[in-house]
Amino acid sequence: MTAEVEIAGERLVLRPDRSLFWPRTKALVIADPHFGKAEAFRAAGVPVPGDSAEPLARLGTALDNTAAEHLFVLGDFWHAREGRTARAVEKLGAWRAGRPGLVVRLVRGNHDRAGPPPDGWGDWSDDLRIEPFVFAHFPEPAAGGYVLAGHLHPGVVLGRERLRLPCFWFGPRVGVLPAFGAFTGAANVPIRRGDRAFAVAGDTVVDVSRP
């Protein structure tokens, strides 16, 4: 189940796959996919399973379910140079080739020194400005619009069991998306009174804002 929030006068749909949909522009927004992270772990001798197939499948389903025509990636497309393998590049390139009508815009993240994007994905930009928003990697206020960003991998701790869940977090001038990728974890963020926060709990997005 999705949730909706109004930010800067725009309706945004928060999805349990950790993507955000902006209906007016038919844009799907994700942050921090960290493609190649499992491959980077294995290169370091950590025998974790998985590859880029799972996040790409989730991304494809999100695009299909929303009928999005644009995809914005808010930094950390890659995880590390060691994970940017020939197989990962080939798989990402093939996925992109299968969606030729999709317009993709990539914002550069701090992990993207790993190398250029695969063929067909375009090139990095430092930010993307479409009123009333500034899409960026680092969650810092900017002139010219409300900032939507990533980088923090925000999370919130709930209940007696101290369950940590990824969350969407919206402050007065900056909003932060949860990390889209696998193996990314979540860091507790200081949700203040007046902020809007939405935890991703399985297939549901739950409003956990402070009253």
Quaternary structure state of the chains depicted? single chain
> DSSP strand (E) fraction?
25-35%
Secondary-structure-derived class: alpha/beta
Indicate the radius of gyration in whole angstroms.
16 Å
Q: Biggest β-sheet, characterized? A: 9 strands, mixed
Shape: globular
Report on the architecture of this protein.
The protein is α/β, with parallel strands linked by helices and 211 residues long. Helices cover 16% and strands 32% of the residues. The chain contains 3 helices and 16 strands. It has helices at residues 37-43, 53-66, 86-97; strands at 3-7, 10-14, 20-22, 27-30, 70-74, 103-107, 124-125, 128-130, 133-135, 146-149, 154-158, 163-170, 174-176, 187-188, 196-201, 204-207. The strands form 2 sheets. Strands 8, 9, 10, 11, 12, 13, 14, 15 and 16 form a 9-stranded mixed sheet that branches. A hairpin with a 2-residue loop joins strand 1 (3-7) and strand 2. It is globular and about 50 Å long.
Give a quick summary of the entry:
The protein is α/β, with parallel strands linked by helices and 211 residues long. It contains three helices and 16 strands.
Give the helices and strands, then pairings:
Elements lengths: L2 E5 L2 E5 L5 E3 L4 E4 L6 H7 L9 H14 L3 E5 L11 H12 L5 E5 L16 E2 L2 E3 L2 E3 L10 E4 L4 E5 L4 E8 L3 E3 L10 E2 L7 E6 L2 E4 L4
Parallel strand pairs: 4-5, 5-6, 6-7, 9-10, 10-13, 11-14
Antiparallel strand pairs: 1-2, 2-3, 3-4, 8-9, 11-12, 12-13, 12-15, 15-16
